[in-house]
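Postdoc handover notes: sequence design on the structure in folder B. Input tokens:
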């Protein structure tokens, strides 16, 4: 029987049988412990994950202080919950279609690493469904990775940039197949063209330079996407960065551009 790979499929064919068996095993363990009268004491129960009731939550298992509701989950349940939200946003907003070729903006930081990892897992699942289908009529979206090298205009030593690039190459290469191309573009390829260098030095205030630098960074990513046939560009912006942008843009009163800057899909 052909497996469905449609994004909005509600048939449940995407579910992993291994996940179901693990969930059943955990449920049996809990029920067995409760029926035998060996329920954990209140202190230990307080340290257990709110969802699975088996593993220690992040508060009790981490040496770092974690606030909010996420501290009540164990790592596995927190990761599963985060992946579910990521997938829901991608599918419900039709961000990626099977024919797309997606370029992930990668910095090596936690946000872009999460985006790359989750998108990779979605691609892997789509490939499994494609291989299991009888006619293989639906293609699987492609994924590439891009890094904008800003060392030419940064105070960070170039050897630190080189080491960071090697680390990022290792992260990308360690992902399971399908393999992903890793593109590196120096920002000066955009910065030094069309009089942009003169414009950058003409801007005196720090905020203006940051805005211009962000614009050059996006142009660099768009250049990579255009030259290598990518149809979508995916950014791993964290909520803190988005919040800073909202406050900054509100103060500067850009008007029409702010909603497009922070929405899921920027079609401009």
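Designed sequence:
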């Amino acid at each position: 029987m052909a497996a469905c790979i449609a994004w909005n499929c509600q048939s449940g064919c995407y579910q992993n049988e291994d996940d179901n068996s693990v969930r059943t095993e955990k449920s049996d363990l809990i029920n067995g412990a409760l029926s035998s009268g060996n329920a954990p004491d209140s202190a230990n129960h307080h340290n257990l994950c709110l969802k699975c009731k088996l593993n220690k939550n992040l508060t009790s298992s981490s040496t770092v202080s974690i606030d909010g509701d996420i501290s009540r989950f164990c790592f596995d349940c927190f990761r599963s919950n985060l992946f579910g939200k990521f997938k829901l946003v991608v599918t419900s907003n039709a961000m990626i279609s099977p024919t797309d070729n997606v370029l992930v903006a990668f910095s090596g930081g936690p946000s872009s690493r999460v985006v790359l990892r989750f998108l990779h897992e979605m691609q892997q699942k789509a490939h499994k469904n494609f291989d299991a289908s009888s006619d293989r009529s639906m293609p699987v979206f492609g994924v590439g990775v891009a890094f904008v090298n800003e060392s030419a205009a940064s105070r960070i030593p170039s050897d630190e940039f080189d080491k960071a690039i090697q680390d990022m190459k290792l992260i990308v290469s360690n992902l399971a197949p399908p393999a992903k191309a890793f593109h590196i573009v120096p920002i000066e390829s955009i910065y030094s063209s069309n009089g942009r260098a003169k414009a950058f030095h003409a801007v005196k205030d720090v905020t203006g330079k940051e805005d211009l630098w962000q614009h050059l960074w996006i142009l660099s990513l768009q250049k990579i996407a255009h030259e290598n046939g990518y149809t979508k560009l995916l950014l791993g912006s964290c909520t803190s960065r988005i919040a800073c942008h909202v406050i900054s843009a509100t103060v500067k009163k850009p008007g029409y551009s702010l909603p497009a800057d922070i929405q899921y899909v920027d079609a401009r």
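Context for whoever picks this up: The first strand starts at residue 101 and ends at 105. Don't rerun without checking with the PI first.
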